[in-house]
Design goal:
The structure holds 2 protein chains of 2 kinds.
Chain A: H1 2-19, H2 23-28, E1 37-44, E2 50-55, E3 61-65, E4 69-73, E5 79-84, E6 93-94, E7 106-111, H3 115-118, E8 120-126, E9 143-152, E10 159-170, E11 191-193, E12 199-202, E13 222-225, E14 245-247, E15 253-258, E16 265-269, E17 277-280, H4 318-324, E18 338-340, E19 349-354, E20 367-371, E21 384-390, E22 397-402, E23 411-416, E24 422-426, E25 431-437
Parallel strand pairs in A: 5-6
Antiparallel strand pairs in A: 1-25, 2-3, 3-4, 4-5, 7-8, 8-9, 9-10, 11-12, 12-13, 13-14, 15-16, 16-17, 17-18, 19-20, 20-21, 21-22, 23-24, 24-25
Chain B: H1 2-19, H2 25-35, H3 37-40, H4 58-69, H5 78-85, H6 90-101
Classes of the chains: A mainly beta, B mainly alpha.
């Protein structure tokens, strides 16, 4: 018997060598299934609420800090502080209209697809420049979130030519009677370059009940525009809507990316103590969030916002909340149903990026989603990065694997780097490079 | 003399629950990482829109946590704090406050 086993093992070993399977894969018993080795490495630390990053092909990394401003890490590791906010210091330039408050501040950043020619980047931030008289109560228009473009100097030491290409995304100016009820709530803020080089801007409902379903307001919307701020000519929102709108009915979108296989846009969205959602976007579609009072069978709500009802100050079964104010209300005929709803929980889906490159092995093409739970009520905190395999039609999932990082924290910003590594900003003040090494 | 000792004991009994003398920082740290770290970050240094809570005098933290436990509103995220503070005992509050005083 021993002789037989030895012959079998010898045969398998020779066969494996002949077939060219790497020894590491043989040792792990993963023949035919490439489970990559995933390794996180801190590349920047001691930052103040890093929120988003954008890469150039050579690895240069722009990044935002929510209450400080925009910086760049060059390929030799040097950091240049480029554009600061009100009361920031040490930046090459700054602007007093840019501010942070609560969840608001300097958020998303992207580089233009043609950066090599035009050296243009875009940044999302809160700004007081366009407040006008709309910010005296929580029930006015209050244009307090903007998108700017800048030209970056050749030596990456400064930016110039600030142009405000979107000036009318709504902002919450005052506190309200809600949990997380301070000013600056629900700004969305992630921006990404999509197919064709268009700029996608993810928004939030800024705690105003009418925002998501009102087509004249940009709060609670995803925009698709060019780098001058003009609507994409093929946007197809309902009649009477602002033409910059690609989708509406959103609560607070902090994650958006495009599936490499077909360019389809997917969002990751915070739920209101129930149902975080991943959604495949449809041009002109409705994500189904409608926290307005006196609608859908509801009466009046605190500060005209039903987003945390029917019991906003205590824990309760998430399913009961979901029935009262659904994240995806099926009464809308143009509803985009979610691909995933976090098993009915809200743990704070903050950002999302598709994993690109064969080095990710079996995870290539999955959507990495950063989660930032606080453990409210009986909901487990569950801060993690999930790798979600989406179905081809985008309407469901095949499975989820938790990214094996060896630690848990609030994963705020995710973006792929040109080295096919995932870069991750955490609310603790770190930016990690997460590499995946194929075992085949 | 006996009367003096009684007065001292009475005084200490009044002070201890308020200022947390003899509080256990290690237990406070353990409790912190059970309930608080998800919002306030490592060692109470603050994260996102959740404020830094390390570095305050122990008496300040005790006062705040007791108020939250009693349901007294102290800011826009009070409802969250009510829920987290509600199950805390006096001893746990004192331990947390002692840990946070010099956690960073």
């Amino acid at each position: 018997m021993k002789t037989l086993n030895r012959k079998v093992y010898t045969g398998v070993t020779i066969g494996a060598l002949v077939l060219g399977l790497p020894l590491a894969a043989q040792a792990d018993g993963h023949q035919g299934m490439d489970v990559p080795k995933i390794t996180p490495t801190k590349v920047l630390e001691g930052l103040e609420n890093p929120w988003d990053m954008a890469f150039l092909p050579d690895g240069t990394m722009f990044y935002t800090e929510k209450c400080k401003g925009l910086s760049v890490r060059t390929t030799d590791g040097t950091v240049n502080a480029l554009y600061g906010m009100k009361d920031s210091s040490g930046y090459a330039d700054s602007a007093d209209d840019l501010f942070c408050e609560g969840q608001a501040g300097m958020l998303g950043v992207v580089a233009d697809r043609n950066f090599a020619e035009n050296r243009t980047i875009a940044v999302y931030s809160s700004s007081s420049k366009y407040f006008g008289d709309g910010c005296e109560t929580n029930f006015g228009k209050c244009d307090g979130n903007i998108v700017m473009t800048f030209t970056v100097s050749d030596d990456l030491s400064s930016v110039s030519d600030r142009t405000d290409i979107v000036t009318d995304i709504q902002y919450k100016p005052l506190a309200s009677d809600q949990p997380f009820g301070g000013p600056g709530a629900h700004n969305g803020g992630r921006i990404r370059i999509g197919p064709g080089g268009y700029l996608w801007v993810a928004g939030g409902d800024r705690h105003r009940g009418i925002c998501p379903q009102d087509g004249t307001l940009l709060c609670g919307k995803v925009l698709r525009i060019d780098m001058d701020g003009n609507a994409h000519p093929e946007n197809n929102p309902p009649e009477g809507f602002d033409k910059r709108i690609y989708t509406y009915g959103h609560r607070n979108v902090q994650g958006i990316d495009f599936r490499p296989s077909d360019g389809k846009a997917f969002t990751a969205e915070h739920g209101p103590w129930h149902n975080d959602e991943i959604t495949a976007l449809v041009n002109g579609g409705n994500a189904g969030w409608d926290p307005a009072q006196n609608t859908a069978g509801r009466g009046e709500c605190p500060d005209e916002y039903c987003g945390y009802e029917p019991n906003q100050m205590d824990g309760m079964d998430p399913a009961v909340r979901a029935a009262y104010t659904p994240m995806s209300d099926t009464r809308f005929a143009d509803l985009m149903p979610p691909s995933w709803n976090n098993n009915g929980f809200s743990q704070g889906t903050g950002s999302a990026a598709f994993l690109k490159g064969s080095n990710w092995g079996i995870y290539e093409g999955r959507l990495a989603v950063g989660i930032m739970g606080i453990g409210f009520g009986d909901t487990p905190a569950g801060s993690r990065i999930d790798m979600i395999s989406l179905t081809p039609d985008g309407l469901g999932i095949n499975g989820i694997t938790r990214m094996p990082l060896g630690f848990s924290t609030r994963f705020r910003g995710l973006v792929m780097g040109p080295d096919n590594a995932l870069y991750v900003a955490t609310d603790d003040g770190d930016i990690y490079q997460v590499t995946a090494e194929s075992m085949q | 003399m006996h009367r003096l000792s009684s007065a001292a004991v009475f005084f200490v009994a009044l002070i201890v629950p308020v200022y947390g003398f003899g509080a256990d920082k290690e237990l406070g740290e353990t409790r912190y990482y059970e309930s608080c770290v998800n919002c306030h970050g490592q060692a109470g240094k603050g994260a996102s829109s959740y404020p830094k809570i390390a570095g305050n005098e122990s008496s300040y933290t005790i006062e705040k946590l007791r108020a939250y436990r009693e349901g007294i509103k102290q800011g826009p995220n009070s409802s969250l704090m009510f829920m987290f503070a509600k199950p805390l005992s006096d001893e746990e509050i004192a331990n947390l406050a002692a840990y946070l005083e010099d956690a960073i």
